[in-house]
Design goal:
two-stranded antiparallel ribbon; alpha/beta; about 160 residues; 4-stranded parallel β-sheet
Length: about 160
Amino acid sequence: MIATAEALDEEMAARISEHRKRRPASWATIEEPYLVTSALEEVGRQDGVVLIDCLTLLISNLLFSPSAKGGQPSQQEVLSEMTDLARSARDSRADVVIVSNELGLGVVPEYPQARLYRDLVGWANQMMAKEADHAYFLISGMALDIKALHINPENL
């Protein structure tokens, strides 16, 4: 498992603690809030399953943290990282499961930075689904196979 959360406040620290308690003892966990593609390339060299939890937090980490260049990364830098992650997941020997959130079903955020974040998550979700063998939308504990339901508009 690759966990992307950071304990930046007490509430998030408590959430992370709860997640750690619920994980089976047999799970190997890498806590990596930024370099997820590199972590996946390392653990994905072997057969098995790699769970990445979660893409939404990874994008938040990347977007709202200073980059190596000294400022916030650009939209293109975040999308480039998502492209690399999607390709790495596709090419991995391991089966890769990526958890994400669908943020585009609610109200359009009031602030530009929040709208950018919502858009980046949506674009990243599209990238991951495109490269994935399977993509599921979970709602109320029920999974919908969105790739099986997909209709290509060009074929209509």
